Amino acid sequence: MRDPYERVIHFNQSRDERFLAIKYKLMASSAFRFFRGSCHLYYEDLASQQTWKDQTITWICGDLHVENFGSYRSRHQVVYFDLNDFDEAILAHPTWDVSRFICSIFLAGKELNIGDDDLKTIAAQLLDEYLNALRIGKAYAVEKETVDGILQKYIAAVSERDPVAFIEARCSLDKTSDRRYLVIDQKKYFKIESKSLYTSLIKIFSENLKKLNTKNQSNFQVFDVAVRIAGTGSIGLNRYVFLVYDHENTTYTLFDMKQAQASSLSLSPFLKIEQPEWDDQAQRIQFIQTLMQYQTPAQLSRLDFQGQAYIVKALQPEQDKIDFKQCVDKPKKFTDACYNMARLIAYAQLRSAGRKGSSTADELINFAEQAEVWKTQLLKYTYNYAQQVEQDYQNFCKSYAEYRTEQKTVISKALHKPE
Q: What is the pLDDT of the chain when averaged over all its residues?
């Protein structure tokens, strides 16, 4: 029996229960948000329903959709637009990333009030953009000097953001001590209740900063740390935000530290491709991200804490995603916003070609040249699966609403139980 609610609950059973309610509420907000939070469902179904053959092997993002592309500043201080989430990254088939991306086009496009016929045309155009970029066989970067239209304006806008305003919006100033602390808003940032955990986090991150800045170890001081909630799929994993002060430059920086878990794809029996051996899951994520991105974000690193591996990176005012609200009722604008994303998939696959078991660039080019054999099947499958996601979303919402009603009843009875 197909029960998306039970499958989601089972998958998330090891996550922090305090924040799962936030994740499920977000997943219940729209079909696209449900899709973002249930990557494991997509590949569980693809295993038994895939209608085309794909023997090519490449590194994939794993959880590719239109919201997993975004801007960031590299260590060279250049703002790029690229794939930006590699939690699920793994060695797999190129069409797995492509099909999930195209499926997201149908789901996100529907929320933008774009009709089915237009979305089918857009999906076909984006698939062709990906294939054409792959056939050329050269991986380019996407930066403001090399793009136009909506993406150029977007990158230009984020490049001009004020880093001081970015910090001030997330911190408060204690006038007594004249130092800043993180704002606990109970939405994105939450207080760490355990004093021992708070102290341990400050200590481990201070030691990590010394490793990253061996020449100026004494310049950096960790002022504060809080629990951080971001995204959808990763909610419930351990995740923290650190406020760090640079005494030499009198500037503040925010760092994100996120628990790294095994890709849900690698845990599934349908993945038959042998994977490299990793020391830990943070090493996997950092290695694949370094391969697939043109440049990695500033301060990307990893550390170990209490037996768990974590990915660390600086949070930046330039780190953002495209606001698709400007594409409502505008299929051409939606296409313009996404066609570079399709190219970036190809660039990432070419960039990582021939590494640790992935197919060579020539093999990827040959794969693209044979696309007429499978691309119609892929487009049909992704359209149909988007309809399945809509149904799964409705079923999930119904079960989630029933669960919340049951919980309220239990709590009410407990509160009014006679002595």
A: 91
User: What angle (nearest 5°) sits at the alpha carbon of residue 63, between those of residues 325 and 34?
Assistant: 55
State the Rg of the chain over Cα. Answer: 22
Residue 379 predicted with pLDDT over 50: yes
Q: How far apart are CA 28 and CA 398, in angstroms?
A: 9
- Site of tokens 């009709």: 115
pLDDT, mean of residues 210-230: 83
Q: Among 165, 235, 244, which Cα is nearest to 15's?
A: 235
What's the average model confidence in pLDDT over 273-283? 94
**Rounded to two decimals, what is the model's pTM?**
0.92
First to last CA, the chain: 43
The whole-angstrom separation of Cα 237 and Cα 387 is: 29
Angle between helices 116-136 and 361-369 (to 10 degrees): 140
In the structure encoding, which two tokens stand for residue 38, read together? 């249930």
Task: Answer yes or no: are the C-beta atoms of 337 and 100 closer than 8 Å.
Answer: no
CA dihedral 50, 53, 54, 60 (to 10 degrees): -10
Pairwise CA distance, residues 80 & 78, whole Å = 6
